[in-house]
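Researcher: Re-running this chain for the archive, since the previous output was lost when a drive failed. Same request as before.
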Amino acid sequence: MFAAAERPVSSVSFLDTLTDASKVAARHGDMQILRISGRSMLPFFGDGSVVIVKKIAASQLREGMLNVGCITSGKQSSHRLTPRLRA
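Model: Regenerated structure tokens:
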């Protein structure tokens, strides 16, 4: 399985990455660009990764999807949805 490094490695500059992500998000009114901070999304996204997210209904959420939400401090938090453990 492919795993992300601690920090993303790319031959594309960060500015070019943001420019490209902005162009994609601009085509869809329901998309937002986020930058991953920290190690909690490893091995899929490293610290500094840029992701484009789309707002969907809770009923559309599926195992393996990345879920982004606001926590009480007003900051955004992301988590990968995992299977529910049964007692």
